[in-house]
Amino acid sequence: MKLLLVLALLGAPVSTPAEHPQIEWHHCQLNAADAEGAALDEAGAECGDLKVPLDYGRPDGPQITLALSRLKASGDRIGTMVLNDGGPGGPGLSMPLRLRTAMKAAGTRYDLIGLDPRFVGRSTPIDCKLPFAGWPWAGGAERSSFERVDRQVADIAARCGTNAGDYLQYVNTRNTARDIDRVRIALGEQKISYLGYSYGTYLGAVYLQMFPGRTDRVVLDGPLDPELYSARLLRTVGPANEAALRAWASWAAARDATYHLGATPSRVMASVDRILRVASKDGLRIGTHRLDGGSVPVVLFGPLADDRDAARTTYAGIVRTLLDATYGPVEPGPELGGFLEALLTPASSQPASAQIAIICGDRAVPSDPQVYWRDIQAHRRTEPHFASLTRMISPCAYWPVQPQEPPTRIANSEPALIVAADGDPRTIYSYATALQKHLPNARMVTLTGARKHGIFGEYGNTCVDNTVITYLLTNRLPDDQTC
Q: Quick check: is 406 in a domain?
């Protein structure tokens, strides 16, 4: 990997612009169809634009725009909190609306900052002009389907090089962390608080490493292991998602009178196996879309990160539709229809492009397809439903630029509160314990018996929520505890 300057090893910005950054504040609603902006305006938020360097090595060079929102404190103000919803590439502009509610008594004590990270959402966009979302994608059951998807991800990388090549070398987590510090400076804050979910925990850990002493209270929910974060991260979560699928099958079997997927867990699993078998051989026709062995595992994987009854009900409806499609064409319900529209059409090109570019920008991965094929084959028996998805080659194997800086080594004494579910299928529990070793002054609250990704303010666990809120109000970290 190429290292631009020695300063990058120390975590400091490559150079510091002399000009104090200024945020241009304005109303949030862009037009009559902008429901997100309207909701922010109605809540009393304001939106702003901040110019930051495209390349922090050339602070006076080309600039890009960050879009952010601010919902000001209405109570006894503690400070400013920056929010990140993960992804990577998840927009954050409207996060203050839900977090003000989730934070309860602490919600009115902070200026809540929703930020669309560089190249995401309303910030200067990146778009590879993809024909469909494109990644992650399963390699299917056969070598021929693997090779077809291999060509597909190579095409994604080529499209990004053609349509977004001027930006790609500047898309990475370290630059996003630098952007957050520019936001801090522009807001006139000596310190900021931070709450991040999923990938946002990695971003938060990188910020702590690069800018020590500039945070007040930090919550990292659904944490990533910083040593494993790369485009190959999913290869470690296959077993957890196989377990989540089996747990859902037990739930569905108990409700066979409603969903007719099988009266026992093994029969429900047989229904899932039929879906995958027919999709791989003949394809499934659902509305205007044709699903195959590459796309069906994506559909089955996505909703498994939530074990609440409402989510499992939705999942059962999706599986029922997929099973019906093994016998002939069917029409999707609104939820599955919307998911397929995002997955299989150009509608999600821009957010998918940002996500892929961020992942590929941080850490290089093997470029030999055989590495991935052997990995899939070695795990088909133990991970029969998801090995071809979680272990599949990505566009990063063909990425047109190399990471511009080495991955950030996380090792510091900054305080933080880590929130983790022991059954999280997306960021498995070993990630949380690994992150805590990198942040020895962090404390952890563990939710047991939950297969949910993202806990605080989302799962409805009073113990977790109250622990986080108390910390945000008092700045006293609890001892490690279990809820």
A: no
